[in-house]
Specification:
With 168 residues, the chain is mainly alpha-helical. The protein is built from three helices and three strands; from the N terminus they run E-E-E-H-H-H. It folds into two domains: 52 residues, no CATH class; 111 residues, no CATH class. The N terminus is likely disordered.
Amino acid sequence: MDITNAPDKVVSRNIQRTGGHRAQLVLGCYSQYLRVPAHFRPGAGGRILEVRYFGEEILMKTPSTVSAILTILILIFVAIVFVLLQMVALNGASERQGLTAMGLSLGCQSLVVILLSTLASRATTFLITQVKWNSLLAVAVTVFTATIIGGVISFVASVIAIPIAGIR
């Protein structure tokens, strides 16, 4: 793998000079030898450019995927609970008005599920790569935060959909 024409991101904490034009990239149990410029010396002003490989991409995608899936599942459960509560609240309304209110509420809740799962996925990746959090902590915090925000918005959507449907 030649890294002389790679993008300009500096990552040298896991690279060790091994002699000649080779360096060793060590990430966890993964080790790979790379071809590097002759002037490269890690930690001595030598510049090494970011090396991306398949294993690193999978390590970053797994927590963000878990975060998105957990957020989707929990928010769907929250949406089902609020729709059932809304059905109880709309007991005396006509069927046409009740279906309109539930449709508006479900539309808003569906949009919230999509947006918050995307936000949870990106926030997890940000917390792991930029803030250097543990992946379990990043997933737990983003799922919890997205669930709280989604629950509040789902409640507000359920309450606001009733007067919008024309129910007094």
